[in-house]
Amino acid sequence: MEKSAQTKQLLETYYKGFAEKSNWESVIADDFEYVGGDMNNIKPVIGKQAYIEIIKRFSQRFNAMRVKQMIVEDDKASVIGNYDFVFPNGVQINGNVSENWTVEKGKLKSLTLYFDTLTFMTNLKP
Q1: Can you give the pLDDT of all 126 residues of the chain as single tens digits?
Q2: What contacts 110, CB < 8 A, 6 or more positions away?
Q3: Which domains, from first to last, does the chain contain?
Q4: pTM of the entire structure?
Q5: Which of 6, 10, 91, 111 has the fewest CB atoms within 10 Å, i.e. is most exposed?
Q6: What are the φ and ψ backbone dihedral angles of 91, each rounded to 5 degrees?
Q7: What angle do CA 107, 109, 110 make, to 5 degrees?
């Protein structure tokens, strides 16, 4: 399978499950690398299970998500995900997240996120 087509298929599987908050984990590599949530700390979190735990917490913060844009080139992709966030303090906002992916050996290998961390963290406070 051509690299771009494989990358797109992996991402479509991931985002379908991610939006439904289930059945997205199968496309994640065991040695997955994740950078996001704190742009002052660019050291990646390593491992599929560690990423699953992060997503368990993050999934509590959104009611809905959709892919706004996806650009795929070989084994790399850039996605703009659009989220309807709900915070413990009652604030609800809609926001975009830039999600940059790599694929290796038929699995999603890494993800680096860029988003408005200040607004996100401020609204996590009660």
Answers
A1: 599 999 999 999 999 999 999 999 999 999 999 998 776 778 999 999 999 999 998 899 999 999 999 999 999 999 999 999 999 889 999 999 999 999 999 999 999 999 887 787 788 776
A2: 32, 33, 34, 35, 44, 101, 102
A3: 3-124 (3.10.450.50)
A4: 0.90
A5: 91
A6: -70, 135
A7: 145
